[in-house]
Amino acid sequence: MHVFVLCLNYTIVTLRFKDNINEYAEKLEEISDLDHIKEFLEVYSIDDIIDNRDDLDFVEAGDAEDLAQELIEQMGGVETLSVETLQRYFNFGSYGRDLAINDYAKTSHGYVRNI
Predict the structure, then answer these.
(1) Same-domain status, 50 and 6
(2) Can you give the pTM of this predicted structure?
(3) Neighbour count for residue 60 (Cβ, 10 Å)
(4) Looking at the 3D structure of the chain, how many domains does it have?
(5) Helices then strands (H, E): number in the chain?
(6) Inside any domain, residue 113
(7) In a domain, 33, yes or no
(8) Per-residue pLDDT tens over the stretch 47-69
């Protein structure tokens, strides 16, 4: 068993390898997002990180709501979401009630915007 201490962006990471350290070091250099290696190691093994290095993605977010907002922003906004996604996650009932209370008046066939 080999022990390798890695210092990346002022973060010290201790890795234990069964195989050749140089091979791991070369493969680690191929990872495009080394700034977040510590976060990846919190979730994945070094082998998983190396094997999936092209699929690694880190999103800086404090909670799940922040994650959703950041990803939607990265995709180009809410308008890029599918109708199915909007129906699943957006509360149309609450939004409609707020519109009816604040901005629209009910008529016999629909709603008229308040002036």
Answers:
(1) yes
(2) 0.62
(3) 9
(4) 2
(5) 6, 4
(6) no
(7) yes
(8) 888 888 888 888 999 999 999 99
